[in-house]
C-alpha cells in the first residue's frame, strides 16, 4: 500500500496529494464498489460533487470501510442552481446529509457562473461553523479568478481545473501563487486521451522506470505540486494509478514533459455561453 504524501493548503490543512475521482461513475452501486476498492487499495481522498449524483454511495462506501473519519479526505462541490445565498446553505446541508458526514473536508464552487459571491459567503460561514474544513473553487480561469477572488474574505484553498501534460495551466498557476492556492487537476489522465497515452516521450519513460504511461503522467503531476485524483472503475488501474511514490523523474525529464504543453484543453471556462449550457446539462433538482 502506498504511503501517500500530503500537501499543506493555505488554510493550514493537510490534504492527501493523491485521491480518487468519481465523475461519470453511476450511482447504481458502481460508485459504492469503486470507492470501496479504492479505499481498500489505500486511497484516503475521494472527490465527488452534487452534479455527479453519487454523494450517497461515496458516503456509504466510506462508512462501511470502517476507516476512521479523520483518515479520509472528502471533497464535494456545489452546483450552479444553488449559488443564491439561501440555496447555497441548503446545498451544504444536503451534501452533508447525503454523504452521511458531520463535516466535509473540502467543498468547491463547481462552476464559476451566476451569484458566485453569494455561494462563497455561505461557504465561508459554513467553514467558520465547522461544517467544512477547507473551501475552494473550480474551473476558474485567470480572468474569472481576477473577477471574483479579490473580493473574497477567505482566499480559496484550491482551484480545481483541467490539468495534464497537454494543458499545464501556466498562466493560471502564476496567478494562484499570490494567494498560495493549490491547483487540483481534473482529467489528470486527459480522460483517457489516446494521443496523450501514446506520446513517445511518455512511453520511453515508462520503459525506463518499468511503469505504465498513466503512472508517468501522474508522477509528473505530483512532482509539479498538483493534487491529483484519477478515476477508474477497474481494480487493476485503481491499484496501479497510485503506485507512483517509489520513483522520481529527473529535472531534465520534468522539463521534457513540460514541453508537451499545448496551452489549451478540452474545456474553456471563458468561452461564451458555457455557464448556460452547463446549467442545462445537469438538473440537480430534477427529482426533488
Ligand atoms: N471540477 C470539474 O469540473 C471536474 C471535471 C472533470 C473531472 N473532475 C474530477 O476529476 C476526476 C478525474 O478526472 P476524470 O475522471 O475526468 O478523468 P481522468 O482521471 O483523467 O481519466 C479517467 C479515464 O481514464 C481511464 N483511465 C484510468 N486510469 C487509466 C490508466 N492508468 N491508463 C489509461 N486510462 C486510464 C478511465 O477509464 P476506466 O474507468 O475504464 O479505467 C477513465 O475513462 C474526476 O473523476 C472528478 O472527480 C472534476
Structure description:
Helix 5 (142-148) links the parallel strand 7 and strand 8. By secondary structure, this protein is an alpha/beta fold. The protein has twelve helices and ten strands. The protein is globular, with a radius of gyration of 18 Å. Helices cover 40% and strands 15% of the residues. It starts with 5 loop residues before the first strand and ends in a 7-residue tail after the last helix. The chain has helices at 30-41, 55-65, 85-99, 116-128, 142-148, 170-177, 194-197, 200-209, 213-223, 235-241, 251-258, 274-281; strands at residues 6-8, 14-16, 20-21, 45-47, 73-78, 104-109, 132-138, 158-162, 182-186, 227-228. The strands form two sheets. It has an eight-stranded parallel sheet with strand order 3-4-5-6-7-8-9-10. The chain has a two-stranded antiparallel sheet with strand order 1-2. Helix 1 (30-41) packs across helix 2, helix 2 packs parallel to helix 3 and helix 8 (200-209) crosses helix 9 (213-223). NADP nicotinamide-adenine-dinucleotide phosphate binds at residues 21-23, 47, 110, 138-139, 160, 186-192, 197, 214, 229-234, 237, 240-241.
Amino acid at each position: 500500500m502506498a504511503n501517500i504524501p500530503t500537501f499543506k493548503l493555505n488554510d493550514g490543512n493537510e490534504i492527501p496529494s493523491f485521491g480518487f475521482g468519481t465523475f461519470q461513475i453511476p450511482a447504481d452501486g458502481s460508485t459504492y464498489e469503486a470507492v470501496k476498492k479504492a479505499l481498500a487499495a489505500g486511497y484516503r481522498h475521494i472527490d465527488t460533487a452534487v452534479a455527479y449524483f453519487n454523494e450517497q454511495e461515496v458516503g456509504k462506501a466510506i462508512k462501511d470501510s470502517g476507516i476512521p473519519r479523520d483518515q479520509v479526505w472528502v471533497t464535494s462541490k456545489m452546483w450552479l442552481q444553488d449559488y443564491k445565498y439561501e440555496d447555497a446553505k441548503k446545498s451544504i446541508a444536503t451534501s452533508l446529509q447525503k454523504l452521511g458526514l458531520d463535516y466535509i473536508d473540502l467543498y468547491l464552487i463547481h462552476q464559476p457562473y451566476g451569484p458566485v459571491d453569494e455561494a462563497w459567503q455561505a461557504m465561508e460561514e459554513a467553514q467558520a461553523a465547522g461544517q467544512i474544513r477547507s473551501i475552494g473553487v473550480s474551473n476558474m480561469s485567470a480572468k474569472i479568478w481576477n473577477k471574483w477572488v479579490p473580493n473574497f474574505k477567505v482566499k480559496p484553498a484550491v482551484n480545481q481545473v483541467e490539468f495534464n501534460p497537454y494543458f499545464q495551466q501556466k498562466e493560471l498557476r502564476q496567478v494562484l501563487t499570490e494567494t498560495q492556492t493549490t491547483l487540483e487537476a481534473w482529467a489528470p489522465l486527459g480522460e483517457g486521451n489516446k494521443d496523450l497515452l501514446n506520446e513517445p516521450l511518455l512511453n520511453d519513460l515508462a520503459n525506463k522506470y518499468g511503469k505504465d504511461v498513466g503512472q508517468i503522467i501522474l508522477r509528473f503531476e505530483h512532482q509539479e505540486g498538483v493534487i491529483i485524483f484519477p478515476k477508474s472503475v477497474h481494480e487493476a488501474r485503481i491499484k496501479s494509478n497510485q503506485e507512483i511514490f517509489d520513483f522520481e523523474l529527473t529535472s531534465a525529464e520534468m522539463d521534457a514533459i513540460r514541453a508537451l504543453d499545448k496551452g489549451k484543453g478540452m474545456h474553456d471556462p471563458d468561452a461564451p455561453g458555457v455557464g448556460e449550457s452547463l446549467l442545462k446539462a445537469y438538473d440537480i433538482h430534477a427529482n426533488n
